[in-house]
Design goal:
Blueprint (H helix, E strand, L loop, with lengths): L3 H17 L4 H21 L21 H15 L12 E3 L3 H30 L3 H9 L5 H6 L4 H8 L7 H11 L4 H11 L1 H7 L5 H16 L6 H30 L5 H11 L1 H11 L12 H6 L5 H12 L8 H30 L6 E3 H15 L10 H17 L1 E6 L4 E6 L1
Parallel strand pairs: 1-2
Antiparallel strand pairs: 3-4
Helix pairs in contact: 1-2, 1-3, 2-13, 3-17, 4-9, 4-10, 8-9, 10-11, 11-18, 12-13, 14-17, 17-18, 18-19
Length: 432
């Protein structure tokens, strides 16, 4: 049965490709799940399902890989991918910008946030990279503050606030591609947005985290696919020249962290990396078999409400929930697995349907040829859910959820065009 996701997502990828004859967003996302499904097969065949320390892949557990969890896993993931098949990047003709100065202001804001991160992290980066990655990760699991967070607490309140919500710097990625590829601004003027977008990786480096750099890489590719129609030879050469060194450094970092963390494991670093990449389907099946259906938690689904009203986040309740479940819940089980563990099978199905409907509401219709940049940012933000869903649900905390709050604000604001009327010398809003 563990071969089914590999066969299914391979077929789904081929179907999306055959349908449009192009490498679009649906093909890209489906390919990611094909790769993780392949890693799962290799992991099972290699006997590497023995993660220790309270994890889901427990020694002695013989996975059943039942029919129902397999259908749920493949079916609901597909449901969250389908809306992105409506977008044909190669047929895009124009990406507009209704509120130019609002976008300038937002771009300036995230650049300031990025500068703050570079300032706080840069002082400690060389020391951290020379340290023990396993120890750094254990410190993060223990809830200890990183050196940058300690330093941040001595800064003025506005700077602390900007650092706290600085995950929005990742939106510098679609903004860079828009200004460089669509508006064809000077690459020297656009490159700060690309540089600043990398700052989210630096936050992850402080705790020897790999998911942030992988998330960045996945969303960078997402932008390449979406903006492919507008990428000229000049921009392609610039991206190759500027991003290749960063890519090499990133790969070396991921390998170094993996080797440091898993070098003492019986399966070695190679087997542990397979566990890392291919465990989502296995964990989902484990959740289906062992989850207590009377337990419901929605800190991940409603991070803002949980933070402001109940003063708790998913990271605050993780240990308590693990004790109640009887297994450690902080493992990869895809975005569908995160929703399933929080709300059960019915809740997972409903959330998947609502997510698909929301995507359809933003994309609006099949084969659109024009978007506003606010639409693109919203699609980028929503696209992170199934794209990074090969691991878990991305917007699980107040800080990560700030990204979609910012995207929703820009999206809603873009639906109104403010027109200056000479006869009464006032601006009136009209529906765009």
């Amino acid at each position: 049965m563990y071969f089914v996701p590999l066969i299914y997502f391979s077929a789904l990828t081929y179907y999306f490709w055959l349908k449009n004859r192009t490498f679009d967003l649906a093909v890209y996302i489906s390919t990611l799940f094909t790769v993780t499904s392949l890693c799962c097969v290799l992991m099972v065949l290699g006997g590497f399902m023995n993660q220790r320390g309270g994890g889901v892949l427990v020694d002695g557990w013989e996975p059943s890989f039942g029919l129902i969890p397999t259908i749920l896993y493949c079916g609901l993931i597909t449901l969250t991918i389908i809306p992105f098949s409506f977008i044909h990047p190669e047929k895009l003709e124009h990406i507009g910008n209704i509120h130019r100065y609002t976008l300038y202001a937002f771009s300036a804001l995230i650049i300031i946030q990025g500068i703050i991160i570079y300032y706080l992290v840069g002082e400690f980066l060389s020391d951290l990279l020379n340290g023990d990655f396993r120890e750094l990760k254990n410190m993060g699991y223990a809830g200890e503050l990183t050196p940058a967070e300690v330093k941040m607490q001595s800064m003025p309140t506005p700077i602390q606030l900007l650092f706290f919500v600085s995950f929005t710097t990742l939106l510098g990625l679609p903004l860079f591609f828009y200004y460089a590829c669509v508006e064809k601004r000077s690459l020297w003027l656009c490159s700060p947005l690309l540089i600043i977008s990398i700052s989210t990786i630096l936050r992850g480096v402080l705790s020897a985290d790999r998911t942030e750099i992988i998330h960045y890489g996945l969303m960078f590719l997402f932008c390449l696919v979406f903006f492919q129609r507008f990428i000229t030879k000049k921009i392609r050469n610039f991206l190759i020249a500027s991003c290749t060194p960063i890519m090499i450094i990133g790969i070396v970092y991921v390998v170094a962290v993996s080797a440091s963390r898993f070098e003492n494991e019986e399966e070695g670093a190679g087997g542990s990396i397979l566990e890392y990449a291919g465990q989502s389907y296995v964990n989902f099946c484990y959740f289906y078999d062992n989850h207590d259906n009377e337990l419901y938690y929605v800190e991940r689904e409603f991070p803002m409400t949980s933070y402001f009203i109940f003063k708790s986040q998913y990271v605050d309740t993780k240990e308590e929930r693990s004790a109640k479940e009887g297994f450690f819940i902080g493992v990869f089980a895809s975005h569908i697995g995160s929703w399933f563990l929080d709300t059960g099978a019915i809740g997972c199905i409903l959330i998947s349907i609502l997510f698909a409907l929301l995507c359809c509401l933003v994309i609006k219709r099949y084969n659109r040829t024009e978007f506003d940049i606010a639409d693109v940012i919203m699609i980028f933000t929503l696209g992170a859910v199934p794209t990074f869903g090969i691991f878990y649900y991305r917007y699980y905390s107040f800080q990560t959820a700030i990204v979609y709050v910012a995207a929703i604000f820009l999206y809603c604001f873009s639906k109104y065009l403010f027109v200056w009327r000479d006869e009464d010398q006032q601006e009136i809003p009209t529906q765009a």
